[in-house]
Amino acid sequence: MGNKRRVILWAVILPLSFPVWSQDQQANEIDALRSELVQLRVDYEERIKNLEHRLDLAEQKAEQATMEAAQATLAVREPAPAPAVVAERSVAVAGNAFNPALGVIFQGQAWAYDKNPEDYYIPGFPLGGEAGLAPEGLGLAETEININANVDDKFTAWLTVPLVLDDGKAGVEIEEAWVETLKLPAGLSLRMGRFFSNIGYLNSRHAHTWDFADQPLAYRAFLGSQYLDDGLQIRWLAPTDFYLELSGELLRGDRYPAGGAANSGFGSYTLAAHTGGDIGFSSSWLSGLSWLHGKSDGRESGPGNDPLVFFGDTDILIADFVWKWAPNGNSRQRNFKFQAEYLLRREDGEYVSSATLPSPWKTDQQGWYAQAIYQPWPRGRIGARIERLSSDKPLPVFTGTVLDPQGENPTRFSLMVDWSNSEFSRLRLQYNQDKSGVETDHQFALQYIYSIGAHGAHTF
Amino acid sequence: MKNRIVTAMVLCFAMQLPLNAAAALRIFACEPEWGALAHELGGKWVKVSVATNALQDPHYLEARPSLISKMRRADLVICTGSQLEIGWLPMLLTKANNPRVQPGSPGYFEAGNFVQHLEVPISVDRSQGDVHPQGNPHIQTDPRNILLVARALGERLVSLDSDHAGDYRSRLKQFITDWNAALVKWEAEARPLRGKRVVSHHKSWVYLENWLGLELVGTLEPVPGIPPTASHLSELLARLGDDGSGADFIIRSPYQSSKPSDWLSQRTGIPELMLPFTVGGSKQADDLYGLFDDTIKRLLEISK
Predict the structure, then answer these.
(1) Contact state of B65 with A286 under an 8 Å Cβ cutoff
(2) Is B166 in the same domain as B194?
(3) Is the entire prediction scored with pTM above 0.90?
(4) Of B150, B185, B220, which residue is a domain's last?
């Protein structure tokens, strides 16, 4: 094949080398032509060689493909199922093809306390919402079922259902249930339903993504662990190279730190701005400023059998900052995360309790935490957290009540170490030196977090 | 050290600036190979930003604020798909509020949809490790796949930006010609590699192995996505033999730790090497051609 082509080629090229020239002047031209021809010959030979080679390879591949095809036919032929079975199975597949992504998160923990956790309270900061200590001893924390799927081309939906044990009885809650737009223009999106508010950094994070087994004191004291409510959320992302997200929420206001669904069920609203970026290839940061305004209409907090009742306005300002580092941004091997938030709460209204008459209350309280997590090797992490609360001195009428900080500034220091075999499993050991209660408590926690099924991507 | 930080910062800043003021299409590429391909096919009509670099494991990335911003303005998102980016891409898509690039839109392109996958599991279970239901996602290690993806991507550019359709078509034609020529060259060069036995850190190169006729005899990871363990490595050592007769070389990517392969190499005498894995993975792998030139060169050098 190659030889034949070569012969044809030379049949074309050779006659070209015998033109009739008028001697001298054109000697140079002839030389030039000759060298061009030599070059041509070399070029063509190389091209022909390449072509031959490709042909060889193609032939080889074709052969291989035929063999593979033959083998494949053989392989396919063997387990040929009866047609009726195939038809039935295809019906079954069609029935569940649109099943949403389903995932379950298992969380279990064991807590050991020095002091009785039943007696725990933070002087000056009556707790509301779900903000108590976890029960002592072995126990199942929330088992969480997550279900999500696109509704159609314009909406997506999410459901989180925790299965909880309350006094030994199993119950189902709706933690999150929302739908969100996919196709709004201009960088907008709208979320409707029940969701964790977008304020601060930690508030919208699910418990299984926390770096410690418990929430920071400031979240426990001011947000009832996490602020969750029914309403609308609109987010706008700026069309800029740097990250800027603005969000606003209108909420029912039925949950701590609001309460009582004031204003006919439009009792609470939030505004938040978050910005962030990269520093080189190895570092990224995210920072935000958020404001929550809640109106309370008979909000209960403090001891369950003798609660304090609050009527009035609550404003919470949160500043948050997160910095993550990994060599070249490859967080798989080694990484570091620093996270800090500052919360300022102003309550303006009146408190009522069984011990006091309705008394005016206008107090500023503050809290902050800072934590650092380091992953020195692929599956292990260590972390430390330090935190503090402080409060204005309330009016003398509150002296001796739960609202009296007793001159103390609640603090806590925590250490944790965890091990993750894969991104779907985590085992954790944590120690708290807790000086937020009346007496210093030493607390130990063992925790596991496992996830099966679909597992949504995590936020930064 | 200081210089490196400054350089990195300058680079980062430069990446934020438009490469060409007249750029028509903003492209967000999940991995460097697709960014490089978009450059080849789009030329001056595209502005490409790449989410990961060659030193990052594309399975595990933080959904960083900067990436959300980039996706917010993208006209086209090019990713591998096959669930490679499942840990971060869905979050970026959710947070970016960009209807143009939602899956199903013309602005969302998964390279994996245009190639034949290897290692497609019959059933998946997480006890098998980080397996992907659609098959092994590291399709870019076979240059024939690059060609398949290039054809589809060229067409996508044409349909998204019809003003420059002629230009995209001629660039695609040129790329196909050049790439075919390069394929011939690579296949000829790599002929001595046929039948070589490979141990790899992760199953990162099954497509390359399939292309060049290499034989994968073991992985340093016990199951995909689980970091190498001492017990698994000793098992591997026993299987490969102290004399290193069980394999010809141990390969890993730039983002994988060299410790496990060092360990095994020292005990067996089997040579180890780092392969670029994607564009930017080595100095020579500065574009798609360089990626395969360098990969084959390194393999040939070590098997001498």
Answers:
(1) yes
(2) no
(3) no
(4) B185
